[in-house]
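User: Predict structure, ligand coenzyme A.
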Amino acid sequence: MNAPVVLQVAATPASPALVLRPWRLEDVAALVVVSRDPALRQRASSVVDNDADGPRWVQAQQRGWAAGDRFGFAVLEAQPGSVRVQLVGNVVLKEVTSGKPAAEVGYWTAAHARGRGVAPRALEALTSWAFDTFVAGGLERLELLHQVDNVASCRVAQKSRYDFDSILPAAPPSFPRDGHLHMRRTSA
Ligand SMILES: CC(C)(COP(=O)(O)OP(=O)(O)OC[C@H]1O[C@@H](n2cnc3c(N)ncnc32)[C@H](O)[C@@H]1OP(=O)(O)O)[C@@H](O)C(=O)NCCC(=O)NCCS
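Assistant: Predicted complex:
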């Protein structure tokens, strides 16, 4: 991909507009702060482990873009009355392989920004971009996985039209509880 991908999401009556763009090293300070949230640490599959770990995490996202198999976006929210933006989340398209029909999505929202539809709005933008970009390479469906007790994530899947597909059995230690597999197909 030559130019950096920037996705725009319109404001709603309850929430400012969002901008999605590839992670940059300048995001590290804000990333480290939001990564201290225990709920995020418990649920996200890839997190910043400690305050010194931010650059490594961002560089891993950048390697994914360079390799063309993992596309992580920082989700930024415009601040009312200001030109400044604030980090509010992460959405990622992963496991992308040319000729493979399925890829996977993931997301988190910073604790201070939850409950305002940030994740479903950002996921919708990611989903449209993923299908627009990778259908020609054989992409047919996107998969979304969450643990059964992650009700908030299940709501994000439902609101984003990722239909429930099946229960995934627990596989400790990485997946201590059963999971839900949701899917969205190109035609949805
Ligand atoms: C799951 C998560 C991404 C949802 O993000 P979000 O931007 O808050 O999404 P929404 O605003 O659409 O809220 C989704 C649900 O979260 C719950 N919720 C609402 N307000 C909330 C708040 N202030 N704090 C926490 N959860 C809240 C509600 O169940 C809501 O569903 P509803 O719209 O039917 O009421 C977010 O809670 C999160 O980052 N959790 C930790 C990481 C995680 O679980 N990632 C997904 C791994 S599969």
